[in-house]
Amino acid sequence: MAPLLTLDGLSVFYGRRPIIENLSLTPITGGGVTALIGPNAAGKTTLLRALAGLVPAKGSIRLVGMASPAHPLELTGLPVSQHARHVTYMPQALPQRVALTVFEATLSALMSARSDVVLSTSEAQARALETLERLGILDLSRRGLDELSGGQRQLASLAQSLVREPTVLLLDEPTSALDIHHQMRVMQLVAELARERSIIVVIVLHDIAQAARYCQRIVVLEHGVVAADGLPEQAITPQMLARVYKVEARVEPCSQGFLQVIVDRAA
């Protein structure tokens, strides 16, 4: 059985200002990728950070794991150390001036992820190197994080998230600093890992066509509430784009069947 993540009545406030208000979602199922899309200030990153346990939230976030489907785990209010055993979060803004190599950072992320799984040094090193190789950045393993370009650092941060092998993987715009080749490589890899490991992947994206191509479910946010939710062809429509993004646009399949969004004008 694949894991499930359910949100029920979730609210997040910054001071007295509501950012996410009474948000509920039907279960997000492991094995696929769910995209959070929406205009600026829609609450996408705030929702992701709430799922990661990094901001106080009211309501319920329940994780039904593969090991104990009859006993859901309530993530809201869980201590950070316990939360991190199940959920890994990759932020959009990455730490600066970290005095570690790419390999050291990846290995450190793996060793700190789980206290209930014991790996030998050779096993941990092999898993870290395998992750770097799969991302195509094995050649960067001995480079310092502070020596990398923005795109390279984004890939190194993704390696630190993937090597942990979490039940829930949360990614905040992981392709924003990447060229087209690496964008496709990352999205293909994330989709492959979701299927292979039956993990739950929730990803914030601004590229609607990219979300439609690689994600099985699209959740559209507007001012902290759900404006649309479903398969790409259900959620991404001219009506939704006009209402949420304030643009007149066409949604058409390309010659290979992928949805394309053609924006004609601002509404």
From TrEMBL:
Pfam families named among the record's database cross-references: ABC_tran
Keyword list, A-Z: ATP-binding, Nucleotide-binding
First and last residue of the signal peptide: none
PROSITE patterns: ABC_TRANSPORTER_1, ABC_TRANSPORTER_2
Molecular function via GO: ATP binding; ATP hydrolysis activity
Keyword Nucleotide-binding included in the entry's annotation: yes
Oxidoreductase listed as a keyword: no
Domain ABC transporter, first and last residues per copy: 5-248
Family: Belongs to the ABC transporter superfamily.
Protein name: Iron complex transport system ATP-binding protein
Organism, scientific name: Ancylobacter aquaticus
